[in-house]
Design a protein that fits this description.
This protein is α+β, with helices and mostly antiparallel strands and 270 residues long. It is 22% helix and 29% strand. It contains seven helices and 13 strands. It comes from Catenulispora subtropica.
């Protein structure tokens, strides 16, 4: 299978989407490196050929905030490139490589190296990975009744992450809502957690959502519809808002039913 090396800002490379290197950051650095060559036959942003001093090369690519050298070798130069990105170079087994050619085995915890807010286009992946990382038993293909309350808990954790948004009133809002959704012949019951972020001063915004869809039942239909917003300039502290949501009566039912899907998505409105 080969062994891979990763450039990441996270403690462990599997958490890179939570603390990402942006594609723009990567391209800016990679384009300035003589050892990086953009393959003509590969039309994927962020993919390069890394050429070693001996002349052979390996593929290095960006995906979801992580940069991976596929089946290559760690070099002091790669560790230096990681430094330029404010990141670290690690192997598949999480050992860390340095510019002097040495390495150290992983010892938890290492500091998180992300020093900027998340970009809006990074938010959904960071939220999804927060959901996965905070649930040791998470399996995207086998939802469980636990996922509804777990989604609320990770919504609360994600709500404290700083995300770049426009400097306007109500730039960063939280929404909890549920109710029937879909056509009459194929209705579903949806529980939705939304973070809405202003993208400009003219009313543009992006909605980052975690959505759980359930098969409709009489019990779920009996819950009706509900929605509630929270914005940072409100008198009620955010923690109190979340405490009140956690005490709502619908969780008794939601904790007994299994969602069909758990989806993380981003929707931009101009």
């Amino acid at each position: 299978m080969g062994y891979n090396f990763h450039i990441t800002r996270a403690d462990v490379w599997t958490s890179s989407a939570m603390y990402p290197i942006s594609l723009r950051e990567w391209i800016t650095v990679a384009d300035g490196e003589p050892s990086m060559v953009k393959p003509e036959q590969i039309d994927r942003p962020g993919t390069y050929g890394y050429t070693y001093a001996e002349g052979h090369s390996a593929c290095i690519e960006w995906r979801d905030g992580l940069i991976t050298l596929n089946k290559g070798d760690a070099t002091p130069e790669l560790a230096g490139i990681a430094q330029k990105l404010g990141a670290r170079l690690v192997g598949d087994d999480e050992e860390e490589y340095f510019v002097d050619g040495s390495y150290a085995h992983w010892s938890r915890p290492r500091p998180i190296l992300l020093t900027r807010p998340l970009n809006v286009d990074e938010a959904a992946a960071a939220w999804r990975q927060t959901f996965e990382q905070l649930d040791d038993d998470y399996d995207a293909w086998r939802p469980s009744p636990y996922h509804a309350q777990h989604a609320l808990a990770t919504f609360r954790a994600f709500a404290v992450r700083e995300i770049a948004s426009a400097d306007v009133p109500d730039a960063d809002g939280l929404l909890y809502q549920y109710g029937p959704f879909g056509s009459e012949g194929d209705p579903v019951f949806t529980v939705s957690f939304v973070r809405r972020l202003a993208t400009d001063a003219d009313g543009g915004h992006t909605r980052v959502e975690c959505r759980l869809d359930y098969s409709m039942s009489e019990e779920l239909a009996g819950l009706g519809r509900y929605s509630q917003w929270w914005f940072a300039d409100e008198a009620q502290p955010r923690d109190q808002w979340f405490d009140a949501l956690a005490d709502r009566p619908e969780w008794r039912l939601l904790s007994t039913v299994t969602p069909l899907t758990v989806v993380f998505d981003t929707d931009t409105a101009c």
